[in-house]
Amino acid sequence: MESFTVRRAKTSDVKSIRNLVRPLAEDRVLLEKEAVAYYENLQEFFVAEDAEGNVIGCGGLHVMWEDIAEVRTLASDAAWRGHGVGHRLLAKLLNEARELGVSRVFCLTFEVDFFLRNGFTVMAEQSAVDPEVYSELLRSTDEGVAEFLDLARVKPNTLGNTRMITHL
Ligand SMILES: CC(C)(COP(=O)(O)OP(=O)(O)OC[C@H]1O[C@@H](n2cnc3c(N)ncnc32)[C@H](O)[C@@H]1OP(=O)(O)O)[C@@H](O)C(=O)NCCC(=O)NCCS
After folding, report:
1. What EC designation does it have (predicted)?
2. CATH code for the domain in which residue 60 is found
3. How far apart are CA 168 and CA 159, in angstroms?
4. Residue 55 and residue 32: Cα distance in Å, rounded?
5. What is the pLDDT at residue 154?
6. Atom number in ligand 1 closest to CA 80
7. How many domains does the chain have?
8. Closest C-alpha residue for ligand 1 atom 45
């Protein structure tokens, strides 16, 4: 397999990011969002590109609170899976979290083994968000945050994905 690089996303990557996300959203693995949401949140995103400049992976870091962020929309092209694209993107996002001063990073995922191998652990119900922060987070209009909070309350978890966390 050829080499790839990871860099910050540009506005011109949004179409490629959406193409990566669409089939995963159809399978309900990732949350589908409007194009405008990708442009508005562009600074959260990194992409991986192959030697020809094709986008082969993406991932975002969404800050939720002073010490909390979420890894979201982490995806690699099916043809590139198992070549370290996800690992390199995730490492970049966690580094970004450190630089921003975040100490806890969440994810909601079906890819439990992948995240375990990348330093995450499965969260005990709600334990990482205290009730005060939780009630503040309820004010968020962000769909991903809403999904995250929903899963904390709804038992059993209706989507069947797992809430995971890493401490930086
Ligand atoms: C999760 C996902 C991003 C992983 O992407 P990936 O590019 O295949 O990730 P990697 O190649 O780094 O790791 C996958 C496996 O390849 C192996 N691997 C092979 N070559 C590797 C290399 N050079 N470096 C690192 N790992 C390598 C790893 O051991 C790893 O095994 P694991 O998944 O059991 O930990 C990808 O499967 C995906 O897009 N899933 C759907 C979307 C999703 O669920 N995202 C998470 C929620 S936001």
Report:
1. 2.3.1.1
2. 3.40.630.30
3. 27
4. 18
5. 45
6. 7
7. 1
8. 74
